[in-house]
């Protein structure tokens, strides 16, 4: 397949110019003399650069505390994820060598419990430390970013490369005004404990997303899942479901088995027992095995509440309150009554009967 150079691009213009010069040489001499050809190619190739780009994108992926401690016998460097851990390690060394300074210059015979106090007493003033000293500094951990030239959500390789370049930005300490965040292709996902809402809060910010992810309508395709339940999606029609990973299938079976086992252990009374399962944001009401003529429980007797809808502009979703007339699981309360399986006489009594010694709803 022949390639037609595009004169509108610098490359295409250069190729067309080279072809014109060689054609003019052949028309003038009837051939391509070696010396003339070399001169033409030399001038033409000088218009290009073949140097490898040395500009690298530096990305900070974390921070480490570098502790260097030395004396007359050793000089060692260790890395720590936070300042408190580095100070604790340094204080441990000071306490192990406390006999070297105990009782001198007002140093107590027993090391104090506070790490910083123990370090200050052991090493003394900076100008009097002699040949035993330490340094502690925070340094960034960086890497060179290799992003795919073309990032497409339909390209498995490009997505895998972008996923492997995801970065976690932790808080540097309790006093840090930032929040823990995952950065992926410019998308920022914050996950943290919110004391105001008294909930685990997840916040997604798309204003810095890679422009290759932005659709023509200036939105980013997004789907949010909690366990196996989709709570928010901008995808419209759902794509064909992918194969469920083995670990997720085992987790689902274990969760279902646990709920059924808990219900079976309590199927000895006449009242329905509420089993709250937040695995899929559902409340499941399980009927015990009745002592009267009510048929045995069947799949139709399971009732599931729909997942709470999440508004994309809400910022956070409030926990869904339990159905009216119920109490939290574990309080010994019975679930709401239902006509699905009524006791003898066809109606439920005004108040629940006292649980039998062998059947408890706690």
Could you say which structural class the secondary elements and strand pairing correspond to? alpha+beta
List low-confidence stretches: 268-362
Indicate the overall shape. flat
- Sheet with most strands: 4 strands, antiparallel
**Global mean pLDDT:** 74
Task: Count helical runs.
Answer: 6
Task: Determine the N-to-C terminus distance.
Answer: 77 Å
H/E series, N to C?
HHEEHHEHEEEEEEHEE
> How many E-type strands?
11
Question: In order across it, which strands form the biggest sheet?
Answer: 4-5-6-7
Strand content: 15-25%
Please state the CA-atom Rg, rounded to the nearest Å: 36 Å
Helix content: 10-25%
Protein model, in words:
By secondary structure, the protein is an alpha+beta fold. It is 23% helix and 20% strand. It is built from six helices and eleven strands. The strands form four sheets. The protein has a four-stranded antiparallel beta sheet, with no helix packed on it. Strands 2-1-3 form a three-stranded antiparallel beta sheet, with helices on one face. The protein has a two-stranded antiparallel ribbon with strand order 8-9. A hairpin with a 4-residue loop joins strand 10 and strand 11. The radius of gyration is 36 Å and the shape is flat. The N and C termini lie far apart (77 Å). The C terminus is likely disordered.
In short:
The chain has 362 residues and is α+β, with helices and mostly antiparallel strands.
Key features?
single chain, 362 residues, alpha+beta, four-stranded antiparallel sheet, three-stranded antiparallel sheet
